[in-house]
Amino acid sequence: MQRLMSVLLSTIFASIALVGCVVASHGVPAPVEDRTISKPRAQSASTTKASVVPVTSENVGKPGFYTVKPNDTLIRIGLDQGQNWRDLVRWNNIENPNNLEVGQVLRVVPPGTTVTPEGVVVRPVTSPTTTTLNQPINPATAVEPQKPSNAVAQPPTEPTKDAITFIWPAQGGVLTGFDEAKNKGIDISGKAGDPVLASADGRVVYAGSDLRGYGNLIILKHNNTFLTAYAHNQTILVREDQSVKRGQKIAEMGNSDADQVKLHFEIRRTGKPVDPLKFLAVR
After folding, report:
1. What is the pLDDT of residues 213-261, one digit of tens each?
2. Is 5 inside a domain boundary?
3. Which residue range is the domain that position 255 belongs to?
4. Do both 101 and 168 map to the same domain?
5. pLDDT 10s digits, 165-222
6. Quick one: which of 217, 170, 220, 214 has its CA closest to 192?
7. What does DSSP assign to residue 179?
8. 3 is a domain residue
9. Is residue 117 part of a domain?
10. How far is it, in rounded angstroms, from Cα 203 to Cα 219?
11. Structural domains counted in the chain
């Protein structure tokens, strides 16, 4: 009996070994615990987010380009760069203005222009109209010949405060003066509902409340150099892309996103805050 049991056990063990060989020969992994960690498959180019490696990453740090930082918005970037945020959308082919990525590099000057390291904007020179052979030339309309290509380009004259005549946007006194680090403009006192006036002719490039700390805000662009900003309004009376005249009522004073009723007024020259009191008439 004991011999019969030994024969049966030997037969069973032999069968198990045979099955193991057959399974191994068909490439099926043995039923053991695998403690190795498999590496994830690399994402294809079509599924990898473009923001991981920005297309314009080669422009990081170059004049005329801006690298997005945490909490940036196109409105903030536009104000700081002296540009219309809608132009930034167009120049950079941005599909969703609300979806900026930290590290994304944006063009902040018009395409076709470059900026020197000193900050001088250089625009392409337009070739003069070619005169038809033997056609009489009218001295009154003749185009002055271009300088030789090896001539040194002269930087544009630095704009002065007299380039635009600004008026006071509100009638109250100055509550807080200009401090580039703490207060990028001046705060003007008043009562809720007091008129807020356009300080100069311009176009509305922003009207809304998306910029934290400014409340109901209006930004006017006056030319390629100057912007003005009007913050903490109670009511906005203009819309984006609307042309306004100097002295036109554009808002009513309020205390939106502020601790009291006041108008926060900024003048930006090529995006840089400057002291409005240097541009406004002395009272």
Report:
1. 999 999 999 999 999 999 999 999 999 999 999 999 999 999 999 999 9
2. no
3. 163-278
4. no
5. 999 999 999 999 999 889 999 999 999 999 999 999 999 999 999 999 999 999 999 9
6. 170
7. B
8. no
9. no
10. 8
11. 2
